[in-house]
């Protein structure tokens, strides 16, 4: 979600009109709010997200490093994805209401 929001903001900045400027600002706000949600996660969950999505580790590699079952890694990552998706949907609704 964060990557998508940042990509939208970057694409919009290349064609600046008043409308695209507003859209870019909204995309940047969306990206920042999603980042805020990521930063609010407990440290162990943030680490899982970092290892999986920024460093490209597999769930099995993460599980081995942390000494937990692979299924637990999948469960936590799925819960975080659902949380971020709900947050992104709320953010989109808020921005649309403006």
H/E element order: HHHHH
Give the integer mean of the pLDDT values. Answer: 84
Strand content: under 5%
Number of beta-strand segments: 0
Number of H- or I-type helical stretches: 5
Poorly predicted runs of 5 or more residues:
none
Number of domains: 1
User: What does the overall shape look like?
Assistant: elongated
Largest sheet: none
Architecture per CATH nomenclature, i.e. the level-2 architecture: Orthogonal Bundle
Q: CATH topology, which one?
A: Arc Repressor Mutant, subunit A
Rounded to an integer in angstroms, the radius of gyration calculated over CA atoms is 16 Å
Q: Which structural class is indicated by helix and strand composition?
A: mainly alpha
The first-level CATH class name: Mainly Alpha
CATH H-level homologous superfamily name: Winged helix-like DNA-binding domain superfamily/Winged helix DNA-binding domain
- Our measurement of the CA-to-CA distance between the termini, rounded to an integer number of angstroms, reads 21 Å
- Helical residues, percent: over 70%
């Amino acid at each position: 979600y964060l990557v998508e929001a940042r990509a939208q903001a970057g694409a919009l900045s290349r064609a600046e009109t008043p409308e695209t400027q507003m859209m870019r600002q909204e995309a940047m706000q969306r990206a920042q709010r999603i980042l805020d949600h990521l930063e609010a996660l407990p440290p162990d969950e943030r680490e899982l997200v970092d290892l999986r999505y920024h460093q490209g580790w597999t769930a099995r590699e993460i599980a081995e490093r942390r000494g937990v079952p692979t299924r637990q890694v999948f469960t936590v990552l799925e819960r975080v994805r659902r949380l971020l998706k709900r947050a992104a949907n709320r953010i989109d609704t808020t921005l649309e209401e403006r």
